[in-house]
């Protein structure tokens, strides 16, 4: 099977080379059959990659440790659910996933455009295949997922325990889908710039793919945040880690693009800006992939140091230079066709919002890479953490939220003072009332940035609610439908507009959650013995009893805690920390290897709409150390005393294994029978749930905006326009609400 | 040996699939007149692209007209502003339609 997998990869590389050559030849000569052959290469590539990835998945499911990647990242005790996800926990498997997703998305866009943008498409095909060729080459020559061992181990090393989380099943494919989808607008932008076909057609084609990239990337980022919050045991969801930032930057860039593209569509403006944003988004996506794979910056999410850095630097260099070169070359054709009619118009707000988003990207880029820049200039790698980001990102985020509330309230092209009053009165009153209420009834005035964010968030939500209400009312005035039907009809007929508004409301909810949880979090790092208690933000948290469990896969030390407030029981939390065996560590004895491998935490969490109570136990195993050392000595003595015949006897081997398991169980049980004080991190965080709710609202709004208009509606619109054609401009009918 | 045969079979399928359009074009050309040079090479590519661009512009303009109307109905545009904006948008739509007529792309494909 490994041989077939490797052959499929090499075949894929040959198909890529062929596809690039035929696409470029077809583009240069205008011969459709060569273009079609190039397009078929992409479909074929997708088929080959599906086959190759299926072989790898089967190897994982069968625990075929002859595959090095399976032996290194899976084991027979890895749950089947996680065996399916294990391929992308390794450098090799994730490269294969990259090419697979890229080939599938490329096939989709090329199939959808097979009768359109005929001049641009072959160049886009060549660019997409170029990306696929780069990653396939890495998989073939640098990190082969089908490398095998002649003497496979009887057991694999197992999946990193930190990755044993449901989010990890979905998080990487979401991020990779986002990254690979961003190459689609990039490829078509390059095609449009090469051919000089810089009108609206290519933009309308790639818009949906840019939106899908934005959606997938956003979901991936939020799943990563959720994983961090519930798995990593530090109590936070965002650490401004380089790899987190690497995903955020293209997402911010894509956010700017999917807004500014509307200005080009409607007004023929910002062509250079849009082309630059498209090219920058994909370049940042590749930069993010580079950060994960090169190990150049320290990150918990990275695959560690590797030899892949240089090829990535070359690719990024080629992308940057060719992008700048193409934009400069086509600058005369990228001039705006119109000017801003008014600074008080939706396009002006979009422009300002774009500047804020790009400023955020610049700040994040600069601070993320500052350690490398400082090392290059001074020879010393300066560490920067979250405090370096906040002074810049917080004010920019406040402006962004404000603009996301203003945008839906004003029209394209122009507004008048009376309309401004009419549209802003309710949302502004809601924002002011929120601010006043929080000032009077809470300690929010101690955190001015959070107070402003709450007020602006309320303003945004009110503006979206008002827009939905007015739109529904306008539709009801025409159709006389009941309210829910009119509301559904409004959304269905204006998916892009109202999907976007819902995203704005979701963003406001999410950022309210971020502001609340980061500004008003209370935490306490305490050491408690059973029966003792500590207080955090008015919650009395008692350490009720310890728990312990030992198995062949891990040993777990846990705790049950009771939470009360004002004498009333609130909840019971259970938390634990598990230690996984480290059989390959030669410095550890047969007992100590059970307690000194990798570890992960099970968080005790009581989530609520207003606050989360979060805890994690960090058991100190020092009291067991003497017994563990003693056990190591006794077992080593036992094993050295065995004759070769006894050592190879299955009965003796099983007896030793059972004795060892018994010893480990007894040692683990001492955590319960002879409990000692252990440390806990106790956190009470307000509004964290709002972050996840906001994310769900954003995803829902994004899906609404992304959902294609039904063919029936398109045909109806077409026939309506056609029927008006002979006597008047083909103007849409006036019942669009 | 089996793996080799499987790879060989996949290779044959791959070659047949990717070269399909070339073989089809060659066969079609052989059946036609010897001086035929292919539909797409004979077709006026730049004109076709211009039509596609104008159709995309028309679709965008239709959307803009509808958006303005929705802005008006939801109170974001006053009656006077709406009349002015709508007038400009319709004039721009007429220009696009006339340009479409000029390049022969009169068939309306809707929005």
Descriptive account of the structure:
- The complex is a heterodimer of chains A (737) and B (111).
- With 737 residues, chain A is of the alpha+beta class.
- Chain A folds into 4 domains: 1-160, no CATH class; 165-345 and 708-737, Four Helix Bundle (Hemerythrin (Met), subunit A), CATH 1.20.120; 408-519, no CATH class; 523-686, no CATH class.
- Helix content of chain A is 64%, strand content 9%.
- Chain A contains 22 helices and 9 strands.
- Chain A has helices at residues 2-29, 32-61, 68-73, 80-85, 91-112, 120-142, 166-195, 201-231, 242-267, 271-294, 309-329, 346-378, 386-406, 417-441, 448-479, 483-493, 495-519, 622-641, 644-647, 650-673, 688-706, 711-724, and strands spanning 522-528, 533-536, 539-550, 555-565, 568-579, 599-602, 604-606, 611-618, 678-686.
- In chain A, the strands form 2 sheets. In chain A, strands 2-3-4-5-6 form a 5-stranded antiparallel beta sheet. In chain A, strands 1-9-8-7 form a 4-stranded antiparallel beta sheet, covered by helices on one side.
- The longest helix of chain A has 33 residues, at 346-378.
- The two termini of chain A are 58 Å apart.
- Chain B is built from 5 helices and no strands.
- In chain B, helix 4 (45-73) runs antiparallel to helix 5.
- The chains are: A alpha+beta (737), B mainly alpha (111).
Keyword list:
heterodimer, A: 737 residues, alpha+beta, five-stranded antiparallel beta sheet, four-stranded antiparallel beta sheet, 22 helices, 9% strand, B: 111 residues, mainly alpha
Layout: helices, strands, pairs:
The complex is a heterodimer of chains A (737) and B (111).
Chain A lengths: L1 H28 L2 H30 L6 H6 L6 H6 L5 H22 L7 H23 L23 H30 L5 H31 L10 H26 L3 H24 L14 H21 L16 H33 L7 H21 L10 H25 L6 H32 L3 H11 L1 H25 L2 E7 L4 E4 L2 E12 L4 E11 L2 E12 L19 E4 L1 E3 L4 E8 L3 H20 L2 H4 L2 H24 L4 E9 L1 H19 L4 H14 L13
Antiparallel strand pairs in A: 1-9, 2-3, 3-4, 4-5, 5-6, 7-8, 8-9
Chain B lengths: L1 H17 L1 H12 L7 H4 L2 H29 L5 H24 L9
Helix pairs in contact in B: 4-5
